[in-house]
């Protein structure tokens, strides 16, 4: 597989994580560099780790994952989105929303946005592709995209205020719904 193809796959896989990072950048009022790095690192790590699991699992797992991955991602991302909207609704002015920094929430978001990477890993296994370079590039591209997305979204959120927190939750619901609809229409 060519280097350009691997980069294209890495960019495509990072899109869901980038979208969720943008939502996180919107809701974190007092964004610190360590927050952005933590979220970006978590997404990058999961995006890199899941293809390895898929690669090791091989063909046997793909049929099961394809049947349920969209529902898992939809439920996890929708749950996080609803919690974000609820927190934004009840938040007092000036209160920092740290829900997305909670380790459990961060793990759920990281897992939910990396399910497709598992299927890519299975594909790499089927195609007999060495996993090391793709995994490194997928993780790095995801990390960089998420880091940029968080900072950009946070700057925009600081301009628009707390109302943008609702938009962050809505973005996650849209992403979750898109994942579900895309997979349901593929089955028809």
- Number of helical segments? 7
Uncertain residue ranges: 92-97
Overall radius of gyration: 17 Å
> Beta-sheet strand percentage?
under 5%
Q: Span from first to last CA?
A: 30 Å
Query: Tally of extended strands?
Result: 0
Task: Name the overall outline.
Answer: globular
Largest sheet: none
Spell the H/E element sequence: HHHHHHH
What class, by secondary structure content?
Answer: mainly alpha
Our count of domains comes out at 1
Quaternary class = single chain
What's the average pLDDT? 80
Roughly how much helix do the residues carry, as a percent range?
Answer: over 70%
Word description of this protein:
With 188 residues, the protein is an all-alpha fold. It has one domain. Helices cover 82% and strands 0% of the residues. The protein has 7 helices and no strands. It has helices at 3-27, 33-57, 62-90, 103-112, 115-126, 132-160, 163-186. Helix 1 crosses helix 2 (33-57), helix 1 (3-27) runs parallel beside helix 6 and helix 2 (33-57) crosses helix 4 (103-112).
């Amino acid at each position: 597989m060519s280097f350009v193809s691997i980069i294209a796959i890495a960019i495509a896989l990072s899109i869901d994580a980038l979208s969720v990072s943008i939502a996180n950048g919107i809701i974190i009022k007092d964004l610190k560099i360590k927050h952005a790095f933590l979220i970006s690192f978590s997404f990058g790590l999961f995006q890199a780790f899941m293809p390895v699991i898929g690669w090791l699992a091989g063909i046997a797992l793909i049929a099961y994952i394809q049947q349920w991955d969209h529902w898992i991602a939809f439920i996890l991302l929708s749950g996080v989105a609803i919690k974000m909207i609820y927190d934004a609704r009840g938040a007092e002015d000036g209160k920092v929303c740290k829900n997305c920094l909670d380790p459990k929430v961060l793990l759920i978001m990281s897992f939910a946005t990396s399910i497709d990477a598992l299927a890519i890993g299975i594909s790499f296994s089927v195609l007999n592709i060495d996993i090391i370079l793709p995994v490194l590039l997928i993780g790095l591209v995801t990390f960089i995209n998420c880091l940029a997305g968080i900072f950009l979204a946070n700057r925009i959120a600081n301009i628009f205020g707390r109302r943008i927190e609702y938009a962050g939750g809505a973005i996650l619901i849209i992403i979750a719904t898109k994942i579900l609809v895309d997979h349901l229409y593929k089955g028809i």
